[in-house]
Queue: 3 jobs
Job 1
Amino acid sequence: MVKLNYKEYCLDIPNNVYLPSEDTYLLLETIQEDIKNKVIDSFLEIGVGSGYISLGLYNQVNKMKVTDINPCVIDYIKDLKQKYDLNKLEVIKSNLFKNIIERFDLIIFNPPYVPSELVPKETDIEKLSTDGGSFGRKIILKFLMNLNKYLTENGVCYLLISSFNNPHYVFKQILKNNLNYKVLDEKNIFFEKLIILKITLKK
């Protein structure tokens, strides 16, 4: 377990839950800069992990849903909800959108984006939180195939991808799925570049 103090929260993050890292910080900072002090009515984070991003935006959201495929994450976030009386937060075990039925004004996804061949397969956290399949984009593409069914008319999605994923191929798939995109931020770390995309419905 890793203890992390964040804002007014003390996070006791289990060992098999992905810890906040460079990608987490970049995604949250970019979203905060883009939405400023705007209040969001309905919010969904796919793959909530440590909860760092959702907690960072909690006070700007009226209704918040978070999902994860990892049962350890679900238990951990439910404990956080109870500990801090996060009554606007609903926790759902789901593989991407599988158990989601409504549309949202804001959707966030920091996906597993590392190509399978670069991911050690020793623990569940590595398989569930980082392994993005072939070219690291298998899960990203599945997400994009269904995204337009879950955004409200003026809804926005913030998605993190990597230079590992062949970004131009991802961009083509976004357009193919009746969506538009804008690159909001980029950051070079080690041997890759992280890219933050703002995605909206094509009108």
Job 2
Amino acid sequence: MTTGERSTVFHKSDPVNMFDVVCLGIMVADIVARPVTGLPARGQLALVEQMEPHTGGCAVNTGIALAKLGRKVAVLGKVGQDGFGDFVCNVLARYGIDTSGVVRDPVTNTAATMVMVDPEGERTFLHYLGANATLCADDVDFDVVKRAEILHVAGSFLMPTFDGQQTAEVLKRAHELMVKTSLDTAWDSTGRWFSTIEPVLPHIDYFLPSFEEAVQIAGRDEPEDVADFFLGYGMEIVALKMGAQGCFVKSTGQAIRLPAYTVQVVDATGAGDCFAAGFLAGLSMDWGLERTAKLANGAGAACVTAMGATTGVRSLEKTLAIVADSR
């Protein structure tokens, strides 16, 4: 399939059984504590004001945020046959998200993260890879994928079996099924960056990394230069998440820089995933690039106003109100 043949979102003929977006990637149970100013000395105990269980993981966060924005969503990934796995799947089901393609691993437990949030909202993590480490291309249910407008891979660099060539094979198969592809990254603690993701780059339509992660891959340090590096692989759109600086979005014909919206930050957990959800929602509604980027910024801003990765995300109407109020 050539780049020119995938210039628009494909609309399938059976909308009742279609998904706007299928999110494939890491699925995590989070335990979030706030505020944490430091760890207690060995053998001692410290109190926090809040500690709550939340769903986490890029695929779960993005899927829930998309559902809150009114999109029809499925999530694909792998969890254990344990209480954390039950918790994650039950929460997804409560949002009307299809989990028929989620694999339950009988051997490995569900991935989990201890999220420690400081008084300014910044996060520190202790993470167990769990079942995400064994996710592979054979786990992907293409009967679900083929019903999607967009397949979004969420959490590259945190799926050691699936990252790289296996991801490339799945995205290539999605294109053969006339499904658009999107990908978001996480921090690569191995430091391999480009060598891991290079096989995947030619098969991505919409690339939604954080600016810091994109810099590590591209080896460039200016937003436009970074975006151009990835557009050179035939991508249609590169959207760089730039935290407090907003976002930089570029296609082959347009470049947009938007500031972040001003909100009271409670917890920045999941902000990048919610930005991705807003961006994918706009694309799935065939919105223009600037309108889509504004929705993405609004979803990211809403996210940080409450504790947890998706608690603060609002309906499409209320998210657009954030955008309108920020003009």
Job 3
Amino acid sequence: MKGLVQLDKSLSYTLLELPNLVNIGIRDNLLTSKSKDKWFPESSDDCFKSIKENNPLLNTFYRNMKIDSLKTHINTASDTKNKKIWDNNQNTFDIILDEGKVHYPNYLEQDKSISVMQPFKKYMNFNKYQPYFQPRGRLSDLCTLNSIGPIGVKFTKNTKQDVSICYANTFDDKDLSCITAIIEIGKGTNLVLDEYFENKKDSIKLYNIVYLIKEGSSVTINRKYDLNDKDNSASIVESRVIQFPNSKFTLDVTGEGSKHTQDIVDLEIYNDCYTNILGTFNCFDKSINNMYVNLDHKGENSFSRVDVRSIIDDQAHSSFLGSINVEKSATGVDAELFNKNLLLSNTATVFTEPQLDINTKEINCKHGCTVSNIDKDQLYYLQTKGIDKFTAEETIKRCFLTI
């Protein structure tokens, strides 16, 4: 096969070539695993058929995301697996989600309000989740297909939890890392979830995460991206959020981009829900940062707000695509979506595209986007107060992201 190099039991490949390698079994994956029927038999087959027909990397969905940095990246699969030292992560975080495995402290064994979903755990019924992992024609399909196995965490009903999760990797190699995860929050539960996405040096990490937020629950996710090795690491995080009736969900994302970052959020919102999506990004050097938010209002009387802000400097690249879809029966919806960008360099690039698809009149919807430079009058005013130019610029930048 053109472009492939095989030496010393190692295989180098790009993501464009990966669909043709799935059947070879270069790693344990959902399609070739002996446990496939216990996990996602239909979804893995459908994902495989989808990527054979249309490689996700060629999807026009990625047209403004500077996708070439992923197309040309060389991944290396090897029989030699060097285990990575996690530094202090095991003591810093409550739960560590890895490729096909969940690491957690002993106290969770006794905590009946939290249960861990391991791929090889006896009596674990993953089949009921597979409708949420049907192909979408995106990189999440490659993630699902090439995961060692699905993992997850389940929070029981009517509890209050404050939990931190690190998405990490066991092996210190340059191979693609894929994590397919399920986060299920029971009815009436109040959850604050701190998420941390660890970079894998000289490698790409794909995530396909489904969040099931049951009736009457309230969930706040504080999502942060690793700043170490970000210039030579790529993270593609696809989140699918299902908000059952009368639930509340807030996602607060912060980051600086990386060699290539995608934060893709698809939400299905039902009756009487509250949804709040916040994003603050400070992108500089040659970092690439892309965010996509799609709110699909399926039920009545729901409230949603999207506010994503980015600072783009040096040769950085930023893109935002946001959409609000309101179905015909979803009357009483109140939804707003805004994206604001502060462009500080002639060599930086920013793409912003807000969209509305409204199918009923009995709603309130707004959307908008801005791209601006630092206001010279504001800068001058701060300097007249004795503040030097650099400090004045930093103050304006901080205010832009927080006010």
